[in-house]
Specification:
Elements: E1 17-20, E2 23-27, E3 34-37, H1 41-60, H2 62-69, H3 76-87, H4 95-112, H5 122-129, H6 134-153, H7 180-188, H8 194-206, H9 210-213, E4 221-222, E5 227-231, E6 243-247, H10 250-261, H11 279-283, H12 293-306, H13 323-335, H14 340-347, H15 352-359
Antiparallel strand pairs: 1-2, 2-3, 4-5, 5-6
Helix pairs in contact: 1-2, 3-4, 8-10, 8-13, 14-15
């Protein structure tokens, strides 16, 4: 990337020299750190030219830097490695979140790892982030802010350049809510696999997350006690993890019995027999009969579109997915008169507001809701 054009007030100054009130400051092109130069203009220019003469060749050739200084060049690759080994383990992130962060870090290593930390200024980082759109931009920027916060704390940078990039508002989610009619059509369709029908019903009845549905073991069931246990994976790193022992209602009990009666020798309630058993796929699964999260989502989208349940929603990305099944189930529980506290506990939510958010949007708006009050003042 060619160096950015300097501002009108800086164009007469050497590279890396900037006004700082009455005096000047020099930005180290290797580390990005700034040093005050409380000298006259002529002396500041002389010092900046001397510094550039020594440092700019090192920017172009990090091997020369290591030869002259005897130190490892301060590359972004080193920062990313230290961030992953020193910062991530202390965050207690959920396994899924941790995996997503590591995927992003690997991309940064590939795209930016060879650059010196001091080379990544606000302009270059902003241009890198601009390749992402909508919520992806927000997530990458958020992670970059954390990386540079770590860099400043460890003395690898003097300021958080990521914080100075543009903060964008996340785009509103386009996906619409499920309807009872839409899900019923998917369940009744001949094109929907039997294992998927059981998974959909289990999502509605239990209100559990996708990752927990596909890993729910048969051993968690006690038909004699009429209970089924689950530990919500998303909460396992919380101060108070959610462990539920669910008293099964008639419909859930019937469904669980169906799952247990499936002839496939599987440790999981939701399972299927793959048409092909490719080694790479088998090695990526906990058991050959297991349904992965991605396959669950993909199979649902296929079944949803094949039966035309939401053809009236023209944009495929706006059609409801597996995730919205949980929201529909929460609303159905509410509609049938179950206490909000009961539904909140079943969903493993920390607040009632979060549960209410899931339940919103399943009924067409009928205009403003009027609150009846009385004006009984006597004059």
């Amino acid at each position: 990337m060619s160096p950015r054009r300097r501002g009108v007030g800086n164009r007469t100054l050497p590279a890396n020299l900037y006004p700082n009130g009455k005096y000047f400051q020099y930005r180290n092109p290797l580390t990005g750190k700034k040093t005050s130069i409380n000298k006259t203009l002529q002396e500041a220019i002389k010092l900046a030219n001397a510094a550039n003469a020594k440092l700019m060749p090192l920017v172009a050739d990090s091997r020369l830097f290591e030869l002259i200084t005897g130190e490892e060049a301060p590359k972004l690759l080193k920062l990313l490695d230290r961030f992953e080994t020193e910062w991530l383990p202390e965050r207690d992130l959920a396994p899924r979140t941790l995996a997503e962060v590591r995927i992003k870090l690997e991309r940064y290593r590939k795209d930016l790892g060879s650059k010196l930390i001091g080379q990544l200024d606000v302009l270059e980082l902003a241009e890198y982030l601009d390749q992402f759109s909508n919520n992806a931009y927000t997530k990458h920027r958020g992670l970059m802010i954390q990386i540079w916060t770590f860099a400043v704390a460890k003395g690898l940078a003097d300021r958080n350049v990521a914080e100075l990039t543009l903060r964008k508002k996340e785009a509103e989610k386009k996906r619409q809510r499920h309807t009872e009619a839409g899900v019923k059509r998917i369940l009744e369709a001949d094109t929907t696999p039997a294992w998927l029908k059981r998974a959909i019903r289990l999502a509605l009845l239990s209100l559990q997350r996708r990752e927990d549905l596909v890993r729910w073991e048969r051993s968690a069931v006690d038909m004699a006690a009429n209970t089924i246990r689950i530990s919500a994976s998303k909460t396992q790193n919380y101060d108070k993890p959610v462990h539920l022992e669910i008293d099964m209602g008639p419909d859930l009990r019937e469904l669980v019995q169906e799952c247990l009666s499936e002839p496939i020798l599987s440790p999981y309630l939701i399972c299927y027999k793959p048409k092909r058993r490719q080694r790479s796929q088998m090695e990526a699964k906990l058991h050959w009969s297991a349904v992965t999260e991605d396959y669950f989502s993909k199979a649902f989208r296929t079944a949803r579109d094949e039966c035309g349940a939401y053809d009236h929603i023209a944009e495929p990305a706006a059609r409801p997915t597996v995730h919205e099944l949980r929201a529909l189930g929460a609303w159905m529980y509410q509609k049938q008169g179950f206490e909000q506290e009961y539904i909140q506990a079943l969903m493993g939510h920390a607040t009632e507001e979060m549960t209410a958010y899931y339940q919103e949007g399943h009924e067409a708006k009928k205009g403003p809701a009027y609150l009846r009050v009385q004006a009984g003042l006597k004059l």
